[in-house]
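wait is this the right file?? whatever heres the structure
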C-alpha cells in the first residue's frame, strides 16, 4: 500500500500486512477445520499464497470434504478435529465451523500448540470469548479472528482520516445490513437440517448479530477508539416464520460515554439499502463500504436552481405556515469523493489470511489484532443479550481488557 509507513502509526497490526523478504522460502503448514463455503473461500486464498501449504482438512460432512479435495487433493482427511490437532505436520489451523464449536476447538488447538485463525464470532458467549483471549495470551500462540475489514485498504484509510480530525468530532455512527432471502440452504434429507442450516437455530448461532453485526460494530469502536457503555434493542421474526430460532429483523443502539450513539439495523426481507457504515462527523461523513466520503458544506447549487428556490421561498414566506414545514430537511444528493483513488477488488479477506501466514511463520502476534477481534465478538454478543432480555444493559467491567498491556482491566476476585 502507498503510504504504508504513515498508516503504521495508527494501525499497528499492518506490520503483518507486507510480505517479508526474510520469510521467503518458508511455509506455514495449515489444517482446515470446516471446509464449508467460508472455509473453502479461505482455502482459495491460502492456495494462492506461496508461503502456505494446506496439509490437512477435517469435516463430518462428506460433500464439503469432496469439494475441498478439489483444491488440495493431497491433503490428509480427518473426521475428528482432535486427530487433526495431533498431526505434527500441522502448524496452525483455520476454524470455520458453526459458532457453538469455536470455543472448544480453539482451546484444544492451543493445548496442541497450534496457532489459530477462528472465524467470527470467536465465541458463542462473552465468557467464552474472554477465556479464548486469556488462553491466547497465556500460550503465546498466534490468534486472528475473521474480522477482515481490519485489513481492507478502504477502512484503514478511512480510519486514518477520521483519527486525523478531518471530519471533525464524530457525532453518530449508523450501521446496517439488509438482505432479501430466507438465509436457508437446501438439504438432501431432514436429519441434515440443523447441520447445514445451523445459522438459523440458537443452539448453534446468535443469528444476525454474530453473522453480520460483529463486522460493523467493530468499525464503530475502531473509529471512536473507545467502547460503548450501554446497549439496548429489539428483535423479532417478522417474515421468515419457518421454524427458525433467530430473528430476521433487529435494531440495536449502543451508547458511548460522551452520548454518541452507534446503531445496527438488519432486515433480511428487503435489500434496497444493502449494507454500509455511516460515520458522521460535524464536518463530514465517511461511508467506508462504498469507499467514499462526503463534506457537510457542499458547493452551492446552479444559479437557476438557486433562483427557483428563492422564488419558492418568497411565495411560501407570505403564507401563514408554522415554521419551515414547506422546506423539509431532505438528504443531500452527493456523489462524494473516493477514499482511495482505485477501489480494491476484495474486502480484505485475502489480506488478513496472508497476514496470518506471515505471523505463523515469524511467530509474532500483530499488535491489537486479538483485542480488536475480541471486542468485535463481545459487542455483538452483548447486543444479542440485550435483544433477548429486551433491556438496557451496561458493559460489565470484568470483560474489559487492556489493549496496551494485553491483560484484563478488572479481574474477578
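ok assuming it is, sequence goes like this
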Amino acid at each position: 500500500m502507498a503510504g504504508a509507513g504513515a498508516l503504521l502509526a495508527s494501525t499497528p497490526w499492518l506490520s503483518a500486512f507486507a510480505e517479508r523478504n526474510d520469510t521467503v522460502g518458508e511455509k506455514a503448514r495449515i489444517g482446515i477445520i470446516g471446509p464449508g463455503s467460508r472455509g473453502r473461500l479461505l482455502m482459495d486464498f491460502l492456495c494462492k499464497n506461496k508461503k502456505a501449504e494446506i496439509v490437512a482438512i477435517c469435516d463430518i460432512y462428506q460433500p464439503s470434504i469432496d469439494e475441498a479435495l478439489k483444491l488440495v487433493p493431497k491433503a490428509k482427511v480427518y473426521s475428528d478435529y482432535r486427530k487433526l490437532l495431533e498431526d505434527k505436520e500441522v502448524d496452525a489451523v483455520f476454524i470455520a465451523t458453526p459458532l457453538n464449536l469455536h470455543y472448544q476447538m480453539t482451546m484444544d488447538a492451543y493445548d496442541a500448540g497450534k496457532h489459530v485463525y477462528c472465524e467470527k464470532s470467536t465465541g458463542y458467549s462473552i465468557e467464552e470469548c474472554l477465556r479464548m483471549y486469556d488462553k491466547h495470551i497465556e500460550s503465546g500462540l498466534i490468534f486472528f479472528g475473521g474480522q477482515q475489514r481490519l485489513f481492507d485498504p478502504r477502512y484503514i484509510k478511512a480510519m486514518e482520516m477520521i483519527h486525523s480530525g478531518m471530519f471533525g468530532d464524530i457525532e453518530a455512527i449508523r450501521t446496517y445490513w439488509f438482505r432479501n432471502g430466507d438465509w436457508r440452504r437446501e438439504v438432501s434429507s431432514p436429519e441434515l437440517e440443523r447441520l447445514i442450516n445451523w445459522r438459523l437455530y440458537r443452539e448453534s448461532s446468535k443469528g444476525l448479530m454474530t453473522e453480520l453485526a460483529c463486522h460493523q460494530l467493530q468499525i464503530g469502536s475502531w473509529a471512536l477508539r473507545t467502547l460503548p457503555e450501554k446497549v439496548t434493542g429489539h428483535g423479532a421474526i417478522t417474515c421468515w416464520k419457518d421454524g427458525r430460532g433467530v430473528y430476521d429483523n433487529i435494531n440495536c443502539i449502543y451508547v458511548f460515554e460522551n452520548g454518541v450513539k452507534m446503531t445496527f439495523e438488519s432486515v433480511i426481507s428487503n435489500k434496497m439499502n444493502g449494507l454500509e457504515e455511516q460515520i458522521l462527523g460535524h464536518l463530514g461523513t465517511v461511508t467506508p463500504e462504498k469507499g467514499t466520503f462526503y463534506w457537510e458544506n457542499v458547493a452551492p447549487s446552479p444559479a437557476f436552481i438557486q433562483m427557483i428556490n428563492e422564488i419558492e421561498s418568497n411565495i411560501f414566506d407570505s403564507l401563514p405556515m408554522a415554521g419551515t414545514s414547506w422546506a423539509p430537511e431532505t438528504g443531500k444528493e452527493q456523489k462524494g469523493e473516493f477514499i482511495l483513488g482505485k477501489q480494491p477488488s476484495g474486502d480484505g479477506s485475502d489480506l488478513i489470511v496472508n497476514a496470518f501466514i506471515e505471523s505463523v511463520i515469524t511467530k509474532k502476534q500483530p499488535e491489537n489484532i486479538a483485542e480488536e477481534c475480541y471486542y468485535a465478538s463481545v459487542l455483538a454478543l452483548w447486543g444479542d443479550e440485550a435483544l433477548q432480555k429486551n433491556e438496557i444493559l451496561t458493559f460489565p467491567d470484568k470483560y474489559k481488557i487492556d489493549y496496551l498491556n494485553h491483560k484484563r482491566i478488572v479481574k474477578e476476585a
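The longest helix spans residues 369-389. so i think its the right one actually
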